Amino acid sequence: MKTFKLLSKIALLLVVFGFFQPVACDQQGFELAESLMEMGEVNYTVSAIGLYIAFFAAVISILITLILLITRKDICSSKINKIDFALLLASIVGGLITFFFVISEFEFDFIDYGFYIIISGWILSIIFSCFAKK
Fold first, then answer.
1. What digits encode the pLDDT tens for the residues 52-65?
2. pLDDT tens digits along 68-127
3. Fewer CB near the last or first residue (10 Å), C or N of the chain?
4. Which own/partner contact pairs does 122-125 have at CB distance under 8 Å and 24+ positions apart?
5. Which residues is 89 bridged to in the sheet?
6. What is the rounded CA–CA span in Å between residue 96 and residue 78?
7. Which pTM value belongs to this model?
């Protein structure tokens, strides 16, 4: 159970790593969020906030697990599992908001490999989280 929990966090590292790669329009995640904020329209601003939520929810989830490991606490308790699930869900929803509000308006030629790294990190994290709960 603990192994799958740790694998889930390693998968979330893919999400974090993907943000530092070109995500769309040859821009990294933070560059893309900054560009979206500068556009000034509400849907672009919401999309930028979604990108920030996707990134920081993944980072917070990883940090919580690291802190619990360092302090030798149980990382598989039901309370921690609920928090992890909420953070994973927040990360995915933040990314989906960005995708549906902005990236879907453009052709898929603008999506770069960082986007696919982020998606694969979310999928793997979900799969490992499901195994960790059993």
1. 999 999 999 899 88
2. 888 877 766 777 778 888 998 999 998 888 887 776 666 556 777 888 898 999 999 989
3. C
4. 122/11, 122/15, 122/88, 122/91, 122/92, 122/95, 123/11, 124/7, 124/8, 124/11, 124/14, 125/8, 125/9, 125/11, 125/12, 125/15, 125/88
5. none
6. 27
7. 0.83
For residue range 20-64, what is the model confidence (pLDDT) as tens digits? 988 877 788 888 888 888 887 777 788 888 889 999 999 998 998
Does residue 37 contact residue 45 with C-beta atoms inside 8 Å?
A: yes
- For residue 95, with 0-12 CB atoms within 10 Å meaning exposed, 13-18 middle and 19 or more buried, which class applies? buried
Task: Judge contact between 36 and 45, C-beta under 8 A.
Answer: yes
pLDDT of residue 60: 92
Measure Cα distances from 36 to 25, 30, 33, 52, 103 in Å.
11, 10, 5, 11, 11
Number of helices (H), then strands (E), belonging to the chain: the values are 5, 0
Backbone φ and ψ of 85, nearest 5°: -65, -40
